[in-house]
Structures are given as structure tokens and as C-alpha cells.
Amino acid sequence: EWECGLEKEGTGGCRTGKGNEETESAAGSGPSLKYGRWYSLRLFLSRHGALVHLPQTLYGVDEVDARASGQKQFDYVDPRNREAQIEMEAIFTDHLRKIGAWLPQRTRTVGEDSGVYAVEASVIIPVLNRAATIQDALRSALSQQTDFPFNVIVIDNHSTDGTSERIDELASSDGRVIHVVPEETGLGIGGCWNTGINHPACGRYAVQLDSDDMYSGPDTLQRIVDVLRSERCAVVIGSYMMTDFDLRPIPPGVIDHREWTDSNGHNNALRINGLGAPRAFHAATLRSAGGFENVSYGEDYGVVLRLTRDYRLCRIYDPVYSCRRWGGNSDAALDISKINAHNAYKDSLRTRELLSRQQMNGKMITSL
């Protein structure tokens, strides 16, 4: 039998044996865990030997949670699960320390930016075949009230459903809309973002708006840029309200990622499944970090992991963005094969980032 726990100094892990016949582990004799015993054991074993994955199916389970994937993905930010998440974070942070991947609080900020830009901020909207929603997103962006000039760069990924015509309709009456059709075909969302941030019209800051979402009010862009300016963060992430197509709030409501802490958020980011929205970046810093991977899932997660390896992240904890759930969402109800593919990709991002952080610390380990 295994006993897993945490010691007062923050070390933790598992032990086994009866009486005095204990196998020494990373745990010592800390208090037993309430939620994370298997998790702690899994991490402990990975520190003491290679793990082999057998790809074939070996057994089956009955599905007891019939919710769609788009609902399940927010369980880790549900306040009802907060106690469990705190325990999991402590286990994982201890694991990072033991494998040499833990980083102290990131305080680095963006240096003075003396660049000359056509605008202070650019709203970046990648889009492919969203004729039903693209004008809502554009009008939301164009309605922003700011004390600085901004534009809206729409990267139209060769749409064929009338999206392009709807973009042109608004662009013809408002010069702030810049309609970009990439030369390349088959770009992912990340590749479209790279096209936007490398466009000559890109401003000092690049701010996310998905093609089927909307800003919550006319002050969203101003609030985000105010934080980017005053805090000089490389990245700012706001909070959002889950809504239906008509902007009526739906469960789970506000997603604000209050699990984030300045002291450990950049470490815990390697454990959780997402970091929130809307995301905004100091564009030059984003470019210097290599931009986005050319994929259409996890590209945002990967680039924020990369930035928080070095830079401080800032947050806005009240909702400034409406994330609409509707029949055209690409991630609202995924089948199990797609969920597995997404999870595998995010795990690959975590593995690469762990290795990079170990290299920063001058340590390498063969088993993760």
C-alpha cells in the first residue's frame, strides 16, 4: 500500500511498506493527501524510473459524466473544486522542484519601447468560414472607446462561405479594418496570428478577439492596454463570461482563473489546461519569443507558457469578454479521439517547456 503526502517545507511524494520496512521516497512522513494520492504516486514514479505507455486499449469504463467536452473543460476552475486544485498545485510544484524545473516568481517586465507604430493597439481576428458571426466580432472591436488609435487586423484564412464579403462590407466604411488574406493556404490559428503580428500595420500591442466572440463593453480594449502600459507586462489575460449566441449567460458563467498567483502561476500553468481570455501581448516581445506554433488548438497555451518562462503575466479578474457557445464552435462537443489528440498535443507542449525550464536551471532529467 502507498501513502502519499506533503511535508511542511513543501516537499512531498509517496512511501510504501509496513512498520519499519519503509521504502524511502520523496515524501517522508507528511500528512496523507485528500485528493491527489494517485497523482502524487504517478509523479513520484516518474522521478524514479522510465514510464512506458502501452497504446492499445486494455479495459473499458462506463461513462458516468455525459456532459459535452466544452462543459467538462472548466471543472478545474469551478470554485467547488478549489480545495482539490490547491492540493494538486502543491503536489505538482514540489515535483517541479525535485526535477529542477521550478522557477521563482517572474518579475521581468517589458523594456522601453521606442518603436514607431501606426497605432497603439491592434485587435487580431483570425477567421475561417464564420459568416454568421464575423460582423458581430468586428462591430464589437470597432465600438471600443479609447484614448489611443487602434486598428482591427482580420486574417481571413481563405473563407468560402461569404465571410470575406462580410469583412469587406465593414472595411469599405471603416479604414480601421485591415482585411488580410495570407498567401499560404492551410494555416492554423497560430499561423494566422503570426501573419497578424508581423503585418506592417500591427500596433505596439496585439489583442485577441475570436471571430465568434465579442468584447463585453466599449471599454475592454482601453482597460487591457492600460494594464499593458502601466504594468509593462509581456502578456495580459482578462476574464470572460460564457454566453449563448444571444449573449445570455450560461453555466459555468465567469471564467476568471483566480487560481493564478504571481508567485506560482507560471509553475502551475504547466499543470492546468488553459490560461484564459482575452489574451493581449506586447507585440515585439511576442515576436522575439518566436510567435505561435502553426496549429489550431493549444497555440495560445503554448505561447503563454513560453512567455511566462521569462516574463511576468498580468490579469484582469472581472469579465471583459463574451465567449459565445453555439453550434459552430470548434471545441464545444468533441469526440473522444479529438479530445485525446488535443490532450496529447498539450502534453507535448508541457514536456518541451519542462525541458526548457530545466535547461534554464542547469539541470536535465531523462524521465518526465
TrEMBL record:
Chain ranges of the Glycosyltransferase 2-like domain: 122-253
Feature: compositional bias, Basic and acidic residues: 1-10
Region annotated Disordered, chain positions: 1-30
InterPro entries per UniProt: Glyco_trans_2-like, Glycosyltransf_2, Nucleotide-diphossugar_trans
SUPFAM superfamilies: Nucleotide-diphospho-sugar transferases (SSF53448)
Coiled coil start-end: none
Protein name as catalogued: Glycosyltransferase
Organism: Candidatus Coprenecus stercoravium
